[in-house]
Amino acid sequence: xxxxxxxxxxxxxxxxxxxxxxxxxxxxxxxxxxxxxxxxxxxxxxxxxxxxxxxxxxxxxxxxxxxxxxxxxxxxxxxxxxxxxxxxxxxxxxxxxxxxxxxxxxxxxxxxxxxxxxxxxxxxxxxxxxxxxxxxxxxxxxxxxxxxxxxxxxxxxxxxxxxxxxxxxxxxxxxxxxxxxxxxxxxxxxxxxxxxxxxxxxxxxxxxxxxxxxxxxxxxxxxxxxxxxxxxxxxxxxxxxxxxxxxxxxxxx
Length: 253
Hints:
The chain is mostly helical.
């Protein structure tokens, strides 16, 4: 029994750590989202709060079981039920609002690409994070390399530059970020078709990553839900097994 409450504290620590990682991460797609969308930051703070609350509940549950305190076990059960209902509600909202979230994400990345400028130090972390995404997923733009044709710097350079992180050449990737120049002049006006870059957009890459890891994501979510359900069952069982003292049977002096 006590090992289970300890497991719950560990689960809380994992959730807490995940929320802190979202806020601290500066080199992945998560960084692009949390720097651009306040909703993800809010979600990270919620995870930190849930993680801290879960750890506290594990401690209270253990304390209630050791000292046979019904009110602590009842509080443990109530908080678990609230968290479980909140998680299910959040999952349903994400599922039914996925197209809206996808559209919002397209606007976020679109604005980032359009205003990308290696000389802008204020947006350095955000731009480095996006360069990292394009390099790791081997993609270019959100829907494709054509998205970069809207970039203000590239337009001013007559489309003779392209993002180095999009390139399919190792010498360009060694530069890390910024823009690279076309080696040979192009007849007429250059387009993204003239750039030595990946054809796949990052949207397809992200969706493919989600599909490849969907089983792991669902497994983790299911595991967390099962642990919470077991915690609820355990707490209510312990609560029922705690007997109140019957002082009517105490012999009178």
